[in-house]
Amino acid sequence: MCGDLLRVTEFFRDVKQTAWKISEPTGFDLVLNVEKQELRYKEDRMSLSYSGAWHREGNRFEERILVKDPVYYRHVYTEDGILSGVIVDYELADDFHYELTGDAWKQFSARYFHGDDELQAFRAFLASNQEWSAFEKALDAAGIEFKKETF
Q1: Can you tell me whether residue 99 is helix, strand or coil?
Q2: How far apart are alpha carbons 117 and 22 in whole angstroms?
Q3: At residue 28, does pLDDT exceed 50?
Q4: What is the CA radius of gyration of the chain?
């Protein structure tokens, strides 16, 4: 019995350390079910992102399109074919993912693409703005709302 109590005490000491490490930097919640002695992690990130809402609403995510290595993007549409938003992925060692609502993307497109073919204009934008943070700086400069995730 005493050995069991010691193992449970060590278990809770480790759980407290793990819970802090998991919930603080990554936004994960730790849920402990003592009776079954199992840990379950509930990802909170999906509720904070546009894409989480788009998934819950059953929106259609198009295939990712390579704009210019390492940048990809994809459109997200409602069942009715209305643009819900756009996700822009920078696939680097430290990934950056930007989410814009459909209206925010249209605002960005109107400001920087000037009615040209979207993909070609996005490629030209990135070619003329070589700095990896140019997209985010352009969004900020235009006052366009977005959400950013870093992995």
Answers
A1: strand
A2: 43
A3: no
A4: 21
